[in-house]
Structure formats: structure tokens, C-alpha cells
Amino acid sequence: MPVIMKLLSRRGALRALENARKALGDATPLKRDCGRLCGAACCQPDETGLNGMLLFPFEETYYRRPIEGFPFRLVDDDTLFKGGKRLVCEGTCPREHRPLACRFFPLRIRVQADALGDHAHCTAELDPRAWCVCPLLEQGGLRAMDQAFIAAVARAGDALIQNVSMLEALYNEQRLIDEMRQL
Questions:
Q1: Rounded distance, CA 114 to CA 29, Å?
Q2: Pick from 26, 29, 20: which is nearest to 150 by CA?
Q3: Cα(107)–Cα(62) distance, rounded to whole angstroms?
Q4: What does the alpha-carbon distance between residue 11 and residue 3 come to, in Å, rounded to a whole number?
Q5: With contact defined as beta carbons under 8 Å apart, do 97 and 62 qualify?
């Protein structure tokens, strides 16, 4: 039975990931390449060479094989969920192969629900981890960004929360961010 549940979970998660990617489309923080403002600071490796982006559940499926023009490796990372992965790259990739976390950056998804937890929806908010790399946060934050991008990130979140694995990962990330803000 556990094998069947895992297969069903995987299929639903991959459908949610595809729907989130479609919701984002080609939306980016600015109407032009924001990486030109800062030398693509968010794509540069740190001194350890281990920084990267956390993948959503089952997102590593997209990265099981090499992708031409996109050198990367997967690293185990249980930050958001057991068995999680982090994608570590060398700083350049074709946009269509970017992980969702890269596509959202410098935003993140916040899940909001009514008091009973019956009606959940997502909003896009500034990711506090982006302050050390992204100049857009200091130059107006959400006001400096293309509103279509902000709306697309929220729609992508709404697509993700239709799957329990994605919802759990988003809530775990939200809990970590909220704890970080209290420090």
C-alpha cells in the first residue's frame, strides 16, 4: 500500500508543479531582465559552492538527467520536508528549466486561510532571504516589481496548495520564515 500512495502522491504533486509553472508563464520581477541591474546576484554561487534553491516535493523529477546548458547537482536537504532536495547550479540556466523557487525569487508564497482553515489562498510576499542579494527589495520592494509577476506568483501558489505535499512544504517554509522574522 505505501508504494501505491507514493505513486498517487507523486502524480498529484507533478500535476500541481506543472500548473504552477503554467500560472507563472514567462512572468519576471521586471518587464526586462532584472539580472542586468545586479549582475544576476541571485544566480551567483557563494564561497562554499553549496548554496542553491530548495526544491518542492517531487520537483527533483525534472532534474534526474543532465540538461544541456544547465550544469547543476542535487543535494539532500530536509529543511522543508523529509527527503527534500536542493538544486545547486553554476549560475546560468535556460529559463524554462529553472526551479520554481528561482522563478518566484525575490518573492515567496504565503498561504492564508480563514479561521476554520476551510478556505485557503496564496499571496506573494517579499522573501526576507532575498535582502542580502536583490536590490529590488531596497528600491521599492513590491512596488518596484511588475504587478503581473506578483499576481502570477500568487496564482502559482494557489495551484500548488491543491496538493497536500506542496501545501505541507509551503507551510513548513512559512513557519521557518516566521521564526526567522522573530529573531
A1: 29
A2: 29
A3: 22
A4: 12
A5: yes
Q: Measure the CA–CA gap between 173 and 180, rounded to whole angstroms.
A: 10
Q: What is the mean pLDDT of the chain?
A: 89
pLDDT digits (tens, 9 = 90+) for 111-152: 998 877 678 899 999 999 999 888 888 888 999 999 999 999
Classify residue 145 by burial, with Cβ atoms within 10 Å: 0-12, 13-18, 19+.
buried
User: Which three three-digit cell numbers place residue 8?
Assistant: 498517487
Can you give the pLDDT at residue 35? Answer: 81
* Range in 9-23, 26-40, 99-113 the model is least confident about: 26-40
Whole-angstrom distance between the N-terminal and C-terminal Cα of the chain? Answer: 43
- Cα–Cα distance for residue pair 105/62, rounded to 1 Å: 19
| pTM to 2 decimal places | 0.90
- Phi and psi torsions of 36, nearest 5°: -70, -25
Residue 182 has which C-alpha cell? 522573530
C-alpha cell at 104: 518566484
Q: Which residue has the cell 543535494?
A: 75
